[in-house]
Amino acid sequence: MRVAVLQSNYLPWRGYFDIISRSDVFVFYDDVKFTKNDWRNRNMIIGADGPIWLTIPCPKDYSVKIHDVAPIDQVWQIKHWKSITQEYRKAPFFTRYSDFFEDFYLKHEWTSLSELNHYLIKSIATRFYGLESRFLDSRDFHLSGTKQERLLDLLVQVGTTTYITGPSARAYIDESIFRQNNIEVAWMDYSRYPTYSQLHSPFIGYVSILDLIFNAGADRRLISPSLE
Predict the structure, then answer these.
(1) DSSP H stretches of helix in 52-185
(2) pTM higher than 0.85 for the full model?
(3) pLDDT along the chain (228 residues), means of 10
């Protein structure tokens, strides 16, 4: 059982969906503290003058957990859709995929950051890329212990044999403890993604999945290059 555990992000980059594509089970880990100026409520798209931040305005209370965070208002939805339309309306695949995002931004009032992030991530993963991972929520499990102990507890309860994670987790993951629980740690390599045609140069790869979708379509080969 290959399992990934990540906090939900707003329109995350393709590496996030690469992790999902390699997982049998993907667990949203939003019952942890909301972090300031992080990917939970913002991401970048590319404009004519370079990267543009799309930020969901949230209360500046960083003691709350991610799943308790609510956008301050719905005005951001109109602003974000306007920026996306302005920057990508001439992209090759904008017309094909724009209806979904227009519906998301203009026909719903999102009052939960977790809820909107989960909706976008699951929809893009399953409807656009046809990924078959099973999505779970860490709030449905009773977890305890320190940061690593809590994660390990979750993985054991899910029945994990391989834990898939990004390189930044090396700062706190002790692989020997995972091996003691018969769990292998598989580290992601984000260095091998192919480039694709963008509307502006130079090429920038670490941006929202929106850029890839509108410029290159939902091609799974662009989010899941083979690992050796």
Answers:
(1) 75-88, 94-106, 113-123, 147-158, 175-180
(2) yes
(3) 98 98 97 90 96 95 92 96 98 98 97 98 97 97 89 96 93 90 95 94 96 96 73
